[in-house]
Specification:
By secondary structure, the protein is an alpha/beta fold. Helix content is about 40%, strand content about 15%. Strand 7 (about 195), helix 9 (about 205-215) and strand 8 form a beta-alpha-beta unit. Helix 1 packs parallel to helix 5, helix 3 packs parallel to helix 6 and helix 12 packs parallel to helix 13. The longest helix has 17 residues, at about 260-275. The relative contact order is 0.12.
Length: about 425
């Protein structure tokens, strides 16, 4: 079996959520526990940090991993989805899992897990834990999938739990109110394990407090003691935070949403220090400044070129798009700014109407669809967008839409590409933007 055959086996033999959506979702931990027992419970061999939430999980997990790596710890990182290659999901000190291990894991275990009919995420999680154990990591930062309580990562007993925020996403599985969704995410809380809540509101705070009280988890609300005093942008993708303890803290993640993420991360690091982790101020600075290089993080308000500027972002629901829309409006006010051009694609199971209502009405749109089954047809997206007052043409693929936007753009224009993680993934496969994982 080659690596390509192994990945195709994973995609075709186990339901992949990014393609199938709700058909790939499996509720419950039965398969996970069976897989864990079969592989020898590898997650018990290293410390873990568990991160859940609607948005910001990727930025928080990658930055925490970068900080822990900078402190000298051999650090595992498990995230989803991937952009270009399955191996992006499973990293040790920023290096993706070896293709030979992916092959070996499937060949050695397929006879066990095939009768279980596990989901793609269940198999990937078991693989990640096994790789981290084999690599003898000191600590691993583990991102949940779409839930918390019944997420297959929830078999771990971490040293710290983090819930970034709560927004409306995946309501078919998690609930129709913020309180219901918060209840599912709060399911990662464990007895005696501190939990950081990055952002909360009047509807979610009581849910978190109630659950923490029930399980006996010390709870910290990062918003109650905001560590960020102010911030300023050096470039669209670089920001400096002023904090009392770390003046001039520079981050390579420049999206508007990152201020809340940064406060969550700093709060979490404070607790990790209390738990005995030797993390210096220099480690924090290095992690914030160099997280993209250290961990391979891409697609978070990432600038790909100048004149015209091309920026992409994986924000894909109303909570994330709201920040993006605010940032685009600010850029439009810059002296000498030209035309805002937006390459937009979405998946069909999102709250598309709410997202469209948030986007700038005076931009030129290039409606497209990513190369996944869940992608909304670009002509249908164009129809919905027209009803929301957004104008533009439809394109069958991301490369065609991006190429059209570039051909029409002047040097002073901005091309933004987003609306879906998978649109960004297709963008990054274009030869001029491709970087091997």
């Amino acid at each position: 079996m080659t690596y390509s055959e192994a990945v195709n086996y994973l995609y075709n033999s186990t339901p992949l959520f990014q393609n199938k959506g709700e058909k790939a979702y499996k509720e419950g931990l039965e398969n996970t526990l069976l897989l864990d027992g079969h592989t020898g419970s590898p997650h018990k061999l290293f410390k873990t940090v568990h991160v859940a939430g609607t948005n910001g999980k990727g930025s928080v997990t990658h930055t925490l991993a970068a900080i822990l790596q900078a402190s000298g710890l051999k650090t595992g990182l498990y995230t989803s989805p991937h952009l270009l290659d399955f191996r992006e999901r499973i990293r040790v000190n920023g290096t993706p899992v070896q293709p030979s291990f992916v092959i070996r894991f499937i060949e050695e275990n397929r006879s066990f897990f095939e009768p279980l009919h596990p989901s793609f995420f269940e198999v990937a999680t078991a693989m990640a834990f096994s790789w981290f154990a084999e690599q003898e990591v000191d600590v691993a930062v583990i991102e949940t999938g779409l839930g918390g309580r019944l997420d297959c990562t929830n078999i771990i007993r971490p040293v710290l739990s983090v819930i970034t925020n709560i927004g409306f996403d995946h309501m078919k599985f998690l609930g129709n109110t913020l309180a219901e969704i918060a209840g599912e995410k709060a399911g990662i809380m464990k007895p005696g394990i501190p939990v950081v809540i990055g952002e909360h509101c009047d509807e979610t705070r009581p849910v978190f407090e109630k659950k923490a009280g029930e399980v006996g988890a010390p709870i910290v609300f990062a918003q109650d003691n905001c560590k960020i005093i102010s911030h300023k942008y050096l470039t669209p993708d670089k920001v400096i935070y002023e904090t009392a303890e770390l003046p001039g803290l520079q981050s390579c993640l420049g999206g508007f949403c990152q201020e809340c993420n940064a406060n969550t991360i700093l709060t979490a690091v404070g607790i990790l220090r209390e738990k005995g982790f030797r993390i210096s101020d220099r480690d924090i600075r290095d992690g914030f400044a160099d997280v993209c290089r250290m961990t391979g993080l891409r697609g978070r308000w990432q600038k790909l070129s100048d004149r015209p500027r091309i920026i992409c972002d994986t924000g894909h629901n109303s909570h994330g798009i709201r920040y993006i829309a605010q940032q685009l409006e600010q850029i439009k006010s810059e002296p000498g700014f030209g035309t805002l051009r937006i390459v937009l694609g979405m998946v069909s199971d999102k709250d598309i109407s709410t997202v469209l209502d948030l986007l700038p009405k005076d931009a030129r749109y290039y409606f497209t669809q990513a190369s996944v089954e869940r992608a909304m047809d670009s002509n249908r997206l164009q129809e919905l967008a027209r009803a929301a007052g957004l104008k533009g043409n439809a394109y069958r693929g991301v490369p065609q839409a991006v190429q059209s936007a570039r051909s029409e753009a002047l040097p002073e224009d901005l091309i933004f590409v987003g609306g879906s993680t998978f649109v960004v993934a297709d963008l990054l496969t274009m030869p001029e933007f491709f970087i091997q994982a």
